[in-house]
Design goal:
Shape: globular
Order of helices and strands: EHHHEHHHHHHEHEEEE
Strand order of the largest sheet: 3-4-5-6-7
Radius of gyration: 23 Å
Distance between the termini: 58 Å
Largest sheet: 5 strands, antiparallel
Number of strands: 7
């Protein structure tokens, strides 16, 4: 008898936790760099300081990338466990823990499991749908980098912050296509240790801040693929995120877009809450605001966020 047999959710949960760990380290660097002005740097000085800042962040970035790879390995194991957890067991039967040495059941963790290099092959052999070539190539590239970083000082490894962000978002989207990473990220922030100190109140603010930085950092095609929004499209404040955020210091993160684009569209999509919100298409009552997108939920303009007196509160 074998006990402590893992479930796919066990691996998915652990994998997402590692993704969040890697993301947290990377996002912290981006947020800190974005605050250079508060440290007295002028725009010209920031550009000059940039190379030195990211050079100093090399070890953090390479470590974050190796953690992304480890997260992906765990999630792939979860995919394999959905088929059968026993596919993870490596070695010939003669090397398995003996069922005759004790009357106690064998713990699954006593078995040696398959190596990372075999995960894709095992999955693709038994799964109904194999991973595509793009995913496999990306996985193998990350594994090579991880091996260099873990087994040497990694002097020849150089990665940019954009590459780490892209890798994390690519892998999450490939493995959990129905999910929005920033929805997952917000939940992690709500459960983080500093939530006990009251930080959870700012989880939406911080998530929207990170999403805004990423939107500026990555290319339009990447933003479309990972966030599901057109980077060049006019964006608006999400009414649900606005309602959930701490607005004592204001809240002006505009990440939601109309779907589809057009003057008659009445649906707004937000990549942070991953929700569709109904809007009214009528001019904002503030004559200085060009918006024609008014929230049905809160009766607020979703560009300047002012309440609309001439709109009946649906509540």
């Amino acid at each position: 008898m074998i006990t402590n047999v893992p479930t796919s959710d066990d691996y998915y949960t652990s994998g997402k936790e590692l993704l969040n760990f890697a993301w947290d380290a990377t996002a912290s660097l981006l947020v800190e760099f974005g605050q250079a002005g508060y440290y007295g740097f002028e725009p010209a000085d920031i550009e000059e300081m940039s190379d030195a800042y990211w050079a100093a962040a090399k070890r953090t970035l390479t470590t974050a990338l190796t953690v992304v790879q480890q997260a992906v390995e765990l999630i792939i194991k979860g995919r394999i466990v959905e088929i059968s957890p026993y596919l993870l067991i490596s070695d010939i039967p003669a090397r398995w823990p003996s069922p005759y040495d004790s009357t106690d059941p064998i713990d699954f963790e006593d078995f040696r499991t398959i190596d990372a290099q075999d995960l894709i092959r095992v999955h693709d052999t038994f799964a109904q749908k194999a991973f595509n070539a793009e995913f496999t190539n990306k996985f193998n590239e990350l594994r090579k980098i991880r091996n260099v970083v873990m087994h040497s000082v990694g002097k020849k490894v150089s990665v940019t912050v954009a590459e780490v962000v892209d890798s994390a978002l690519f892998m999450h989207k490939a493995l959990f296509p129905a999910e929005s990473w920033f929805t997952i990220r917000r939940e992690f922030l709500r459960r983080a240790p500093d939530s006990e100190l009251g930080a959870s109140e700012f989880a939406t603010n911080n998530t929207c801040h990170e999403a805004t930085i990423v939107k500026d950092l990555l290319q339009p095609a990447q933003i479309q693929a990972y966030l599901g929004v057109d980077k060049k499209q006019h964006s608006f404040v999400c009414p649900a995120c606005l309602d959930d955020a701490n607005t004592d210091g204001g809240f002006e993160y505009r990440l939601a877009v109309l779907r589809p684009k057009g003057s008659g569209t009445t649906e707004l999509y937000c990549p942070v809450c991953n929700g569709i919100h109904i809007v009214r298409r009528q001019p904002c009552e503030d004559k200085n605001c060009p918006s024609t997108v008014i929230s049905e939920e809160s009766c607020r303009c979703l560009l300047c966020t002012t309440y609309q007196r001439g709109v009946d509160d649906p509540a």
